[in-house]
């Protein structure tokens, strides 16, 4: 479904087009402009963005775009601290670019036009050259605007794992399994028509007909094959455009060792994992319960949509089994230290609110009462200082808030102080508070936004600038 965007969305589109043009002008003659010319340095990897037909179940074909003809795209394994050159060829049919989510890149290489990264025109290409850091489970995805078009940007199959591997990895596991979750076949829905919770003046929301954990719907792909006694490292990614997920592996438990690719101070064993949009979890599972099991959504609705994969022990057959999970609370402080973090140099208050769009309209989102582009700049930082963002989600929606080009430390969740949990995306449940600290140590324009594609397109974004 494609339709004319409302005026406030068109205003953002115009602003973004200007930002993209400014970004291209800013790097003319610089490393990006040189990389586009013939005879540039050879690429270590090539990513081609192009339309594909994706069969997620027999007879269920999704027309989308992806990377190198697959969804998810190819796994990029990079060595920590080593330079890498990645050539991106844009045959998607519209201006596009790739964001290297979780990496400490310069702003003109980050893949966000808001920061000055050049847009790649349809039929064009661009060589991204940067040093791979920090280590851990990162990912890459489109950062193009989608606005009201549910066939663009993060609504599509344009995503893939990016693993920055340390020079020496002790392993401590026998097998590695990478699974990315995604929702498909989106449509705009007036929430009043399906009688769900939002108030009567709420605007349109994106809803979906299908989901995958991996490349196919539950029961229609190859199972994850394991052996009794193995320690399996699951790297899990929520690559959905706007839907959070909760996952469980029937008959087993997860020992969480990293969040967003960063080791946690206190690895904890849990039965359920919660991943908001853009979040990653690394978890070890001891394969000690032979059988054929389902790793999938904890909700019947989610599994019926396809969100899951079969885990099959060697020598075992039969129908995959599911065990209903007890209600679980996901709390970042579980994985952190109870001692407070260091005091910041500066604290900044941020309040997130919705301006409802009404039946048939689109909502608008604000940070401290302003929507993009009026949040450019959101605030200014000085290099080397530690900043605490005191965040208040004063809305009935969940928000996975992402900071580009930096990591941050979670220092408080609601009224509970914590330290040591390092992330790049933090989920803020409805009507909740949280505090995060980051050090301004990567000069350049830095985007801060909700990772729900619709919320970002509806104004939930701001630019942090260095003095």
What does this structure look like?
The chain is mainly β. The protein has three domains: 7-165, Immunoglobulin-like; 175-330, Cupredoxins -  blue copper proteins (Immunoglobulin-like, Sandwich); 346-466, Immunoglobulin-like (Sandwich), CATH 2.60.40.420. It has four helices and 30 strands. The protein has helices at 7-27, 31-36, 300-305, 453-457; strands at 45-57, 60-67, 76-79, 83-90, 98-101, 125-131, 136-142, 159-165, 175-190, 204-213, 224-226, 231-238, 245-249, 254-259, 262-270, 273-275, 280-286, 292-297, 308-313, 346-355, 364-367, 379-381, 386-393, 399-403, 408-413, 416-423, 425-428, 432-439, 446-450, 461-466. The chain has a six-stranded mixed β-sheet with strand order 10-9-12-17-14-15. A hairpin with a 2-residue loop joins strand 1 (45-57) and strand 2 (60-67). The longest helix has 21 residues, at 7-27. The two termini are 43 Å apart.
List key phrases describing it.
about 475 residues; mainly beta; Immunoglobulin-like; 3 domains; six-stranded mixed sheet; 30 strands; about 10% helix; globular
Rg value: 21 Å
> Which residues sit in consecutive blocks of at least 5 with pLDDT less than 50?
1-39
The count of DSSP E runs of length 2 or more, i.e. the number of strands, is: 30
Question: What is the name of the CATH superfamily of the largest domain?
Answer: Cupredoxins -  blue copper proteins
Q: Portion of residues in helices?
A: under 10%
Number of domains: 3
Return the CATH topology of the largest domain.
Immunoglobulin-like
Mean pLDDT: 92
Strand content: 35-45%
């Amino acid at each position: 479904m494609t339709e004319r965007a409302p005026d406030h969305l068109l205003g953002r589109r115009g602003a973004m087009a200007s930002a993209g043009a400014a970004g291209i002008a800013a790097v003319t003659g610089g490393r990006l402009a040189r990389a586009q010319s013939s005879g540039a340095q050879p690429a270590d990897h090539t990513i081609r963005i192009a339309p594909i037909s994706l069969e997620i179940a027999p007879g269920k074909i999704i027309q989308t775009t992806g990377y190198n003809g697959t969804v998810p795209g190819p796994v990029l394994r990079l060595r920590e601290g080593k330079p890498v050159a990645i050539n991106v060829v844009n045959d998607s049919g519209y201006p596009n670019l790739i964001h290297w989510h979780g990496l400490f890149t310069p702003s003109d290489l980050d893949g966000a036009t808001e920061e000055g990264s050049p847009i790649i025109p349809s039929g064009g290409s661009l060589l991204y050259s940067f040093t791979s850091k920090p280590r851990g489970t990162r990912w890459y995805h489109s950062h193009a605007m989608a606005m009201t078009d549910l066939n663009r940007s993060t609504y599509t199959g344009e995503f893939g794992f990016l693993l920055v591997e340390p020079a020496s990895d002790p392993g401590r596991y026998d097998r590695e399994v990478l699974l990315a979750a995604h929702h498909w076949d989106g449509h705009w829905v007036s929430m009043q028509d399906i009688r769900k919770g939002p108030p009567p003046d709420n605007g349109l929301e994106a809803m979906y007909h299908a989901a995958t954990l991996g490349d196919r719907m539950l029961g229609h792909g190859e199972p994850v094959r394991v052996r009794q006694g193995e320690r399996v490292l699951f790297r899990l990614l929520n690559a959905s455009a706007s839907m959070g997920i909760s996952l469980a592996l029937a008959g087993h438990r997860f020992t969480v060792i990293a969040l967003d690719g960063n080791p946690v101070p206190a690895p904890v064993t849990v039965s359920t994992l919660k991943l908001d949009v853009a979040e990653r979890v690394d978890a070890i599972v001891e394969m000690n319960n032979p059988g054929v099991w389902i790793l999938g959504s904890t909700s019947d609705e989610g599994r019926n949509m396809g969100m899951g994969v079969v885990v099959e022990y060697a020598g075992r057959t039969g129908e995959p089994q599911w065990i209903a999970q007890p209600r679980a609370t996901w709390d970042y402080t579980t994985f952190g230290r109870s001692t407070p973090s260091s005091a910041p140099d500066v604290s900044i208050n941020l309040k997130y609110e919705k301006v409802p769009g009404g039946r048939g309209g689109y909502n608008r989102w604000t940070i401290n009462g302003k929507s993009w582009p009026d949040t450019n700049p959101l605030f200014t930082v000085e290099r080397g200082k530690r900043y605490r963002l005191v965040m208040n989600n004063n809305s009935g929606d969940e928000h996975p808030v992402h900071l580009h080009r930096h990591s941050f430390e979670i220092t408080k969740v609601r009224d509970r102080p914590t330290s040591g949990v390092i992330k790049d995306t933090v989920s803020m449940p409805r009507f909740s508070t949280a505090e995060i600290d980051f050090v301004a140590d990567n000069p350049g324009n830095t985007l801060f936004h909700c990772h729900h594609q619709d919320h970002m397109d509806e104004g939930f974004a701001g630019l942090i600038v260095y003095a």
